[in-house]
Amino acid sequence: MITRLFGFKGGVKPESHKNESSGTPIQKAPMPKRLVIPLRQSIRSTARCLVQPGQKVLKGEHIGEGEGGLGTSVHASTSGTVVEIAPYPMAHASGLETLSVVIEPDGEDRWIDHTPLDLPTVSREEALAWLRGCGIVGMGGAGFPTHVKVGGGRGIETLVINGAECEPWITCDDRLMRERAPEVLSGAMILRELIGAKQVLVGVEDNKPEAIAAMQAAASTLGDGIAVVPVPTLYPAGGEKQLIRVLTGVEIPQGKLGTDFGVQCFNVGTAHAVHRAICFGEPLVSRVVTLTGNVARPGNYEVLLGTQVAELLELAGPKADTDRYIMGGPMMGTELQSLSVPVTKGTNCVISASPALFPPPPPELPCIRCGACARACPAELQPFELYWFSRAKNFGKAQEYHLFDCIECGCCAFVCPSRIPLVDYYRFAKGEIWARERERQASDQARERFEFRNFRQEREKEEKAAKLAAKAAETRAKIADTGEPAPAPTEAEDPKKALIAAALARAKQQQAAVTPRNTEDLSADVQAEIADIDARRDKLNQQDADKAP
Amino acid sequence: MLTAILIMTGIAIVLGAALGYASIRFKVEGDPLVEKIDAILPQTQCGQCGYPGCKPYAQAISNGEADINQCPPGGEEGIRKLADLLGREFKPLSEEHGTEKPKSVARIDEQVCIGCTLCIQACPVDAILGAAKQMHTVVAPLCTGCELCVAPCPVDCISMVPVAETVENWKWKYPVHELRSVA
Amino acid sequence: MNLQSFRESAWNGLWRQNTGLVQLLGLCPILAVSTSVVNAASLGLATVVVMAVSNLAVASLRNFIPYEIRIPVFILIIAALTTVVDLAFNAYFHDLYLVLGIFIPLIVTNCIVLARVEAYAAKNDPVSSTVDGVMMGLGLVWLLAVLGGLRELAGNGTLFAGIEMIFPGLSAISVFGPDYPGFLIGILPPGAFFALACLIALSNVIRARAAKRKAATQEPAAPAADQPASAA
Amino acid sequence: MSARYTAARTSVRTAGIMVLFTVVFTALMSATFQLTRPAIEASALEGKMRLIREVLPPSAYDNALLEDSVALGRTPELGLDQGGHIYRARMAGQAAALVLEVVAPDGYAGRIQLVVAVGVDGRVSGVRVTAHKETPGLGDYIDPNKDRNKSQPWIGQFAGVSFADVGLEKWKVKRDGGNFAYRSGATISARAVTNATARAADYAIRNRDALFAAPAGGRL
Amino acid sequence: MTSYIFIIIGAVLVNNVVFVRILGLCPFMGVSKKLETAVGMGAATTFVLTLACGTSYLIDHYLLEPFDLAFMRTLSFIVVIAAIVQLTELVIQKTSPVLHQVLGIYLPLITTNCAVLGIPLLNVGLRHDLLESLLFGFGSSIGFTMALILFAGIRERLDGADVPTPFRGTAIAMVTAGFMSLAFMGFAGLDRFH
Amino acid sequence: MINSPYIRKPASVQGVMLAVLIALVPAIVVYASQIAAVVLVNLAIATCAALAGEALVLKLRGRPLAPALSDLSAVVTAWLLALCFPPILPWWATALGVLIAIVAVKHLYGGLGQNPFNPAMVAYCAMIVAFPALMSQWPAAGQLDFATQLGLVLGGARELDAIASATALDTIKTGLRTAGATVESIMGQNGNFGFVSGRGWEWLAPAYALGGMYLLARGIITWHMPAAFLGALAAISAAFWLVDPAHYASPLFHLASGGAMLGAFFIVTDPVSGATTPRGKLIFAASIALVAYIIRSFGAFPEGVAFAVLLLNICVPLIDMNTQPQVFGHRGDKAR
Ligand SMILES: Cc1cc2nc3c(=O)[nH]c(=O)nc-3n(C[C@H](O)[C@H](O)[C@H](O)COP(=O)(O)O)c2cc1C
Ligand SMILES: Cc1cc2nc3c(=O)[nH]c(=O)nc-3n(C[C@H](O)[C@H](O)[C@H](O)COP(=O)(O)O)c2cc1C
Ligand SMILES: Cc1cc2nc3c(=O)[nH]c(=O)nc-3n(C[C@H](O)[C@H](O)[C@H](O)COP(=O)(O)O)c2cc1C
Ligand SMILES: Cc1cc2nc3c(=O)[nH]c(=O)nc-3n(C[C@H](O)[C@H](O)[C@H](O)CO)c2cc1C
Ligand code: SF4
Ligand code: SF4
Ligand code: SF4
Ligand code: SF4
Ligand code: FES
What we know:
Chain A is α/β, with parallel strands linked by helices.
């Protein structure tokens, strides 16, 4: 079916180090002592907690409800008792904490009732909702909710299944393809059904012959429209855009989605999870994780989500000279700041790093503009220009040179003879630009509100003046009527005093009406917050009232 | 000598008349520069610049009355942008106008607040909720951190708390420059 | 005009607002004629004369000049005075006149002259305006002289070459002797840029030192003033 | 307030003031000009005379040499593309020497302007460079003011040498087989001046009679 | 014909106004921080300088020389230049608001650009005729614009350089201008045949 | 904290610069054996001056010495300069030139990687402008014995006529000024001429090319610049030569003489001050060749490569800006 491969420019060939962990079959990790399940499992969305401490839960039970368009459900990974709902560190470069549900397993690992979805009988929307309910997110690392990707756009020509696994050391997808090829392809066929793609292309780097063989064997039973394609081993061939380019020749620019070009890409793990979700109704509660690096027993394990890394590592037995742990691969992973972080849906690998395996880079030298980075960059950027502008905090220029096209693959830093942590500069610059954008929005909002407030004050002043004038006229009329001396003519003449008087009067009048006038035209978020505050205030008032008598 | 005077006078008459006429005929209208400057200012409306709000400060810069380094909330970045816009040299924040601080928001200690409404009157962006004799609350997303509400409070119940770091607003730090750190 | 404001003017002109070092105005003559002390200083002095007299003239006549034609009138005044100086040079220092070439008439476009007239003389009394003009000009003179000296020394190894054009009896001093190979770039255009750059850098260093010293002397007083702030 | 009315009135008023200033300051300028005019003319004259004194001793003539000139049109022999002047020195009414404006077109960095004085006897009494762009410090020794050897400037070697004796063949720099010194590393400048001097002397000798015969202020 | 070409080459490269003649340095240093402004300033100067060269030639040739008023050159040239600048501004404002937006802020600065007076004065000194004057003015202003744009390009890049503190800002810009001037010396002699 | 990537290719600036130095060795061997052995002394002087200058600036700025001194980039600059200067240049002039390159051109902009101009070439231009006489005294290849050479370098009296002989380019150029001279007559007249660029000197060009090949093979430079430079130089010189062979030297002469080969592989290719985009590199190098030819043939200076490099350094920001390669996925986009 596929006639030729398209290359992509750039790329690097680090030592693969796959053999360490790819030799042994996937083992089931033993039941951990406790599970810490973060409510934030997909990007930019934290699920709303559905359980309370002390509550008993079953495996696969809904414990978090996805909120907003990018939300997905979170489930208990095993049966047991919720002991705590508290912030725990997450596997994120910031090392910050996020609200997590802590479950003490009861050891029974008892499933909640679950039934398969009979795909032909349900509408597309229902199927998407099903995936969302099963908590399926991309397992290739980005953690983007799969139902959103599936739901976006139609007229898709090609479904790409990403089995490239281009990062060194990681072998979880390799093992998954070797051992569960039919399941992966079943998931792929479901995804193809859902997005209406004509063909399925499974891209696997050619350094995984066993996986290719297994997948091809499984694919041959599925007839036409599906092909398992070996792609040349070249990091980052597994990057979505690069793989799509290699397989189809289509280039997806930054800010555009594959669907705009008739291609969509899913990781093999994701396809496997989709298979489990549709064919068995199982939500996503476990995944395959590679444990490798400086360890005694490297290998792949089927791990319950929420298992803390410290516990997981005991399986592999880190050696004594291990000085840090990397979650993900050596090119794009993050160093763990705490071993209490849990395995999440995007965790594909934990590497024990020793100075011998991962020597710290020598000190950074100035960029000599040698262009090695540009030759290595798969996004065909000029990394040294991005670096130059990011370092000088000239973010406008950095954006002009397509900073946001950078996929942070690390190729540039890998080849740089000056050992500059280039990607760090891009991350810094991107963060700053996002922060600027947030600030700009805040300042626009502040300007609007300030102007509105001025306008309101102006209006109130006018109203007041009009009222006062009316009152004065009335009084005069009264005086004329009755001949009585005016009660306080000075008050009406002294504007300041009049103002105070008016304000007092108004305050008295409106004491009951608590909606202040300064809360007009607000966004929904802020309205919600105000409602919250009001509720809290009511409660306090109530307490005050209770106390008063 | 006479020819000199005659020739120059001729030139002068022509030019003087033309320019005098032109100065009336093509009078310059509104100043878009102020808008551009105002767009750069952070709209905190705190008055630390010595002007009652950002717009007046923008006006003053445009008139050449104020320098570009008087707005602490805008920080170095803001000064840089102003310098760029106005084609001037960057200069550090003027010390007499304050220092750049981490962004904070006001918080009212609800147990202490007596509901005097003074802070509501002070807040330039209507970020405080509450009515007379009721305890007041700051709507954090609206608060610009200008601190104007702090001073008027008769019971000192308003404090500025730094905005907490969350995953949403966390930023990668500037990479350490090894060359310097070795020294 | 009291002593205080005189000092202020002098300090401004000679150092703080020095035209060449700080304001970066009137650069062309500074760079073009600073090939020798004599050339540089004489053009500088010519500029002083024009600045002082035009400041005086404008300050005296400022009440008669309508706002809308002030610039043309200022230019007219400056141009006339420049021509006077030009003619005087032509008559009495003919050789120098030939050397300085178009840079005498170009005093007209020296932004600094117009800038001072516009910014100072148009708003102040004649005496202080004249002082301002003289001081601003002298700031230019010393800069020019130093620059000329540096370049002449580097380029030719002499000082005061061409002095005979002004004082016929005198002659140049050969500082490095006749065997000095001559670092010619000094008296060529690139040398002008480098020399001024070095002077600016030097003045930056001096200014930074002065600021630091000032900060250091203020240090003891500062905490007292800071107390309430830090308490708050 | 009618804009047109004000505009008209303002124009008249500003124009009036402008004129006033113009008159005053133009008058000032003109006055200065009148005042300095004699001095300027004297300076200019003195400048020229000084140059001529350097190539031709004042004792060699007694006429008002600057007024006794002939204008030349384009004269390729003298390198004059745009023409120039020749001044005639006479002693007691007798032809004494010619002072020629000459251009050497083949200097290292372009044209070199010279003044060459040639006696009626074919003796070159002096050569001076009046304008050149030769490399400072290298080729500029042709200008005695720039010559490092102040006591014996290079250009002085032509003074008193008779062109008639040396001849066109030998009036060259030594490197080209002639008689005259040059400074190594900058032969081109020396060669240009030497050759131009030769051409000038040759021209002066050959056209001597016609030149002296031409009317003063005339054109040849 | 070739002599006209040599006038242009000479004015643009060999005797570049900024780097060799050392004229017009205030705007060169002042308006070269950003590329866009440099382009704007260059365009405005080109227009005014070319026009000024033509006008000043006419004034010199038909008014000053016949009446022996050479001493009034400076005055009359500068007054005319100031007027050209002002009138240009008005005309542009009236006819093309867009162009005015682009050039507007630079026009007033041109009066004090000494190249605008210097080049017409040099024209007189070099005895150029009308066409030569115009070409010389145009070439010089192209040279000016080129210098400004190239300089702005380098300055934008210098923004991120770790320049020693005393040299930050103006001083390093001046050094850069010096190197550019050195580079332009390489063209020396190209107008030799002129 | 170290962030991803956690693995690095074993490449270093030091390695890159070392490769450049190694690539210069063949040429140095030819130079020392065929032309003037004193070049070895000059290389030593230049190296010392470069390191001393660098150390001085770093000290003044309070920066650590070790990383900058050990990166060898200053040594590259020093060697290139020593190879460009006349071998009998007095020692102080060599040192001064190197100090200009290192202090004024490199460190005034903040040191390695930040200088917009090529330090070696700026220094060469500055020196030829400052000391035109000294800088145009070249010995005839292999004519002076080592003691004389050393004496001249260490500041012995300079009997110009005895030692100086113009370079091939200079001879052609000054020769052509004489009316009636042709390339052939000059070549024939000057006995010390080899078949292209002077006896002894002609071996230098292939030696530089050999070093260049090594750099290409090592991936330190890309083909763009040498190819564009040599191609453009050959093309323009061929054009003039074909039209008028009597007054314009042959392409072979131009490629083999002056700084052409050194320039093509070592100078034009300076990564720091050159253009960086593939298209920009072609434009940059070809323009240098063009300008260099014009200056060589029509300008005041005998060799144009240095000035041409400097002139094009000035244009680099604009060239880079306007030749940015299309980014992945944006190939259809309109140019900015
Ligand atoms: C540089 C880079 C390398 C990547 N490598 C892989 C990979 O080897 N395998 C993979 O499945 N996803 C990889 N990804 C993630 C993919 O781009 C993409 O997010 C994923 O294939 C989409 O599928 P998902 O939504 O099912 O995760 C990589 C991403 C980047 C930026
Ligand atoms: C920058 C430079 C400027 C030069 N300037 C001159 C000059 O002004 N006059 C001159 O005769 N030669 C000059 N030369 C030297 C000539 O190019 C040539 O080398 C010399 O005239 C030939 O040497 P020779 O005079 O010993 O034969 C200069 C050389 C250089 C490199
Ligand atoms: C070329 C050069 C010249 C310097 N000249 C001086 C000087 O004259 N006086 C001085 O105190 N420091 C001088 N310094 C050092 C600086 O003042 C300062 O210590 C150093 O540049 C600190 O720079 P940084 O803040 O960028 O690290 C010079 C530095 C350099 C590189
Ligand atoms: C291929 C290559 C060529 C180089 N060429 C030069 C050169 O021409 N001039 C120079 O000063 N340094 C050169 N260098 C050294 C280094 O890049 C130079 O010192 C920097 O410009 C200093 O910031 C070169 C380095 C490399 C790798
Ligand atoms: S690889 Fe490193 S040194 Fe080379 S250009 Fe890129 S960032 Fe600069
Ligand atoms: S991290 Fe960004 S700039 Fe670097 S190679 Fe990858 S895509 Fe290119
Ligand atoms: S200091 Fe800044 S934020 Fe505060 S009012 Fe002034 S301009 Fe606005
Ligand atoms: S709540 Fe206080 S700090 Fe916040 S914006 Fe209002 S006045 Fe300023
Ligand atoms: S002095 Fe020449 S432009 Fe200012």
